[in-house]
């Protein structure tokens, strides 16, 4: 952890993510305005201190800052849980396939290949169409997109590690499969998996926004950054702030996750430690 | 040398096959040898002659499929390892038989401290607590000649040089006082001065702990300097087996002769061409009938190409016996010996 704080890239990423988490926490107790309350008298007002609408109002007169704050929680929840589920199942499958080899490897990876052959957004839309438009279905859809990605990353890492002599040495000194898996293989493949996770977190934000933008994710009137952009599309030329601020919110969080992932990769490799 | 000491490990008629798409590879075929207490037993041979597979077979670490041990007996202190179950094998691996590998750069897990890796073997086999094990680790590291062992134990593998890592591997291997240490080309990846140090360390540990060592190598100089007994392997079979001195003084098998002639000599003229055995090793999936070395052998008789030679026992001139598999040395042909 102390090494995390010494790495400037990871630190910036962490601060950005911390900011979003803080905003989410605050939004549970206090919001500047009601995120759902429409106000026809004040539609598409530009950002101003005087009115209290710091980020302006949208085409229904709702405060954009409030809706971004409300949407942050949804975005974080979906991104984190989808990545966790996808990473766990995918890594499990990949390690299994890589470690056992043979027919297991063949079938697991062929299934992954089938899922892989769809573009991620298309696959997510497909799953959403089957499951129906619910917030938790977005989580399931995104994790299904992630499973083959994590399976492939972890299988490759296992294949690279498992023929190292320390794995043979462990077997030759009496370790069983479970011990070798948990003690030698898993820790050694964590680096690519964690880096993949942080990239996946940022892609999950984008996927969730895209699904909501297309009307498949979080359903209006509940705010999400994606459906805010979707609404703003119609009025973007008249009131650019309606698109600008949700867009910046997405960009900031994606940047934060990417910076953290980059920094983590440097930190987690003991071979890169102590190099100044 | 033979039959004088207690036999620790006895391999009888071991056969290991690999089923590949191009046919069944007889990686090890009819290999028999005994390792006595405190002895350093050398196995030499070129790449692919079955040296490593023989030793992986002893620990039952042949990847299966495609590998399979099809016949034989491996007796470790009266117990047949080929009939042991997985739990018994796990106690034997690293317990009574341990192994060190060729490449010390990859034989330690880069993410674990050195002390943790050695301690885990001790915890596994002796049921020591982490604290007791870590204390023992420092002793072990001192025993293998690592200076400042308390501090070094807390470091990661990348902070060790190649020679130091091999010492760590040896510390890990001797941690449970094994009866047999299998060293699979332990010095191939090290430079020459470090090689000498590591070999010297293995020799001293073998003496002080009366631990038997199976030393796999393709360096005849190492064999001459280290081993008590040596087996020469060719195409998965032992072609000659003898105490070290008689073998170097008077090699019997033409392959052994060829190997010895291929070693550069200090007393040869500088512009003399180095001898090399003509031809290439045979394809193990498609061995010729008869002796596998016959196609490359200058002394081959017609019978060599038809039938595999039986094992001939000979006197080694110092009270022991030596074993050769060559038609030139069977009783009916020994008169025509070259």
Précis, in short:
The complex is a heterodimer of chains A (276) and B (338). Chain A has helices at residues 2-6, 8-29, 64-100, 102-116, 120-131, 135-162, 165-172, 177-213, 225-232, 241-268.
Structure overview:
The complex is a heterodimer of chains A (276) and B (338). Chain A is mostly helical. Chain A has ten helices and no strands. The two termini of chain A are 18 Å apart. The mean pLDDT of chain A is 87. With 338 residues, chain B is α/β, with parallel strands linked by helices. In chain B, strands 6-7-8-3-9-10-12-11 form an eight-stranded mixed sheet, with helices on both faces. A four-stranded antiparallel sheet of chain B has the order 2-1-4-5. In chain B, a hairpin with a 2-residue loop joins strand 4 and strand 5 (79-80). The longest helix of chain B has 17 residues, at 192-208. Chain B is globular and about 65 Å long. The A-B interface holds A 102, 164-166, 168-176, 179, 183-184, 187-188, 270-271 and B 59, 61, 65, 86, 89-95, 98-103, 106-112, 120-121, 124-125, 156, 158, 169, 172-173.
Keywords:
heterodimer; A: 276 residues; mainly alpha; 10 helices; 0% strand; B: 338 residues; alpha/beta; 8-stranded mixed sheet; 4-stranded antiparallel sheet; globular
**Gap from first CA to last CA of chain B:** 27 Å
Number of helices of chain B: 10
Number of strands of chain A: 0
Greatest interface by residues involved: A-B, 20 and 33 residues
Strand order of the largest sheet of chain B: 6-7-8-3-9-10-12-11
The low-confidence runs of chain A, each spanning 5 or more residues with pLDDT under 50, are: none
- List the secondary-structure elements of chain A in sequence, H or E: HHHHHHHHHH
Classification by helices and strands of chain B: alpha/beta
Strand percentage of chain A lies at under 5%
Oligomer: heterodimer
Number of helices of chain A: 10
Give the low-pLDDT segments of chain B.
Answer: none
Gross morphology of chain A: elongated
Mean pLDDT of chain B: 84
Q: Which class of secondary structure composition applies to the elements of chain A?
A: mainly alpha
């Amino acid at each position: 952890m102390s090494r995390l704080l010494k790495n400037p890239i990871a630190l910036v990423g962490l601060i950005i993510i911390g900011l979003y988490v803080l905003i989410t926490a605050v939004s549970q107790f206090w919001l500047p305005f009601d995120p759902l309350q429409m106000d026809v008298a004040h539609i598409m007002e530009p950002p101003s201190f005087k009115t209290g609408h710091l980020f302006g109002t949208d085409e229904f007169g709702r405060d954009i800052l409030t809706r971004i704050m409300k949407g942050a929680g949804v975005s974080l929840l979906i991104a984190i849980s989808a990545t966790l589920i996808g990473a766990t199942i995918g890594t499990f499958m990949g390690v299994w396939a890589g470690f056992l080899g043979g027919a297991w490897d063949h079938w697991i990876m062929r299934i992954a290949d089938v899922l892989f052959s769809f573009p991620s957004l298309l696959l997510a839309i497909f799953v959403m169409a089957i499951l129906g438009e619910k917030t938790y279905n977005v989580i399931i859809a995104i994790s299904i997109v992630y499973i083959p990605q994590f399976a492939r990353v972890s299988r490759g890492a296992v294949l690279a590690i498992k023929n190292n002599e320390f794995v043979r040495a462990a077997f030759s000194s009496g370790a069983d499969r479970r011990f070798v898996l948990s003690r030698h293989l898993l820790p050694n493949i964590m680096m690519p998996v964690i880096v993949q996770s942080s990239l996946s977190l940022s892609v999950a934000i984008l996927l969730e926004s895209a699904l909501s933008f297309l009307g498949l994710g979080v359903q209006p009137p509940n705010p999400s950054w994606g459906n805010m952009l979707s609404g703003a599309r119609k009025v973007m030329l008249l009131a650019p702030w309606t698109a600008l601020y949700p867009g910046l919110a997405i960009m900031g969080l994606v940047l934060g996750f990417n910076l953290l992932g980059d920094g983590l990769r440097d930190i987690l490799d003991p071979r890169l430690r102590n190099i100044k | 040398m033979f039959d004088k000491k207690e036999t620790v490990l006895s391999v009888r008629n071991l056969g290991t096959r690999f089923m590949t798409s191009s046919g069944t590879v007889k990686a090890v075929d009819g290999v028999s040898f005994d390792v006595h207490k405190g002895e350093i037993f050398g196995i030499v041979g070129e790449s692919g002659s079955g040296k490593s597979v023989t030793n992986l077979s002893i620990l039952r670490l042949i990847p299966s499929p495609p590998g399979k041990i099809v016949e034989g007996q491996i007796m470790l202190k009266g117990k047949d390892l080929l009939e042991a179950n997985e739990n018994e094998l796990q106690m034997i691996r690293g317990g009574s038989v341990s192994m060190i590998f060729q490449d010390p750069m990859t034989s330690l897990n880069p993410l674990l401290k050195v002390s943790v890796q050695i301690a885990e073997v001790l915890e596994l086999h002796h049921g020591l607590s982490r604290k007791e094990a870590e204390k023992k680790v420092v002793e072990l590291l001192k025993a293998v000649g690592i200076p400042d062992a308390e501090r070094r134990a807390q470091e990661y593998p990348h902070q060790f040089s190649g020679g130091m890592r091999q010492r760590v591997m040896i510390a890990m291997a001797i941690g449970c006082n094994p009866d047999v240490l299998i060293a699979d080309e332990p010095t191939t990846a090290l430079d020459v001065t470090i090689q000498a140090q590591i070999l010297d360390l293995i020799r001293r540990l073998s003496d002080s702990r009366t631990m038997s060592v199976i030393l796999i190598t393709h360096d005849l100089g190492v064999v001459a300097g280290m081993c008590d007994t040596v087996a020469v392997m060719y195409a998965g079979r032992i072609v000659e087996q003898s105490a070290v001195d008689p073998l170097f003084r008077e090699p019997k098998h033409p392959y052994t002769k060829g190997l010895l002639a291929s070693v550069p000599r200090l007393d040869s003229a500088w512009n003399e061409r180095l001898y090399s055995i003509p031809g290439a090793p045979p394809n193990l999936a498609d061995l010729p009938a008869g002796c596998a070395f016959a196609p490359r052998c200058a002394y081959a008789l017609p019978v060599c190409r038809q039938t595999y030679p039986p094992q001939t026992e000979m006197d080694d001139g110092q009270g022991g016996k030596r074993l050769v598999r060559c038609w030139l040395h069977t009783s009916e042909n020994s008169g025509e010996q070259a």
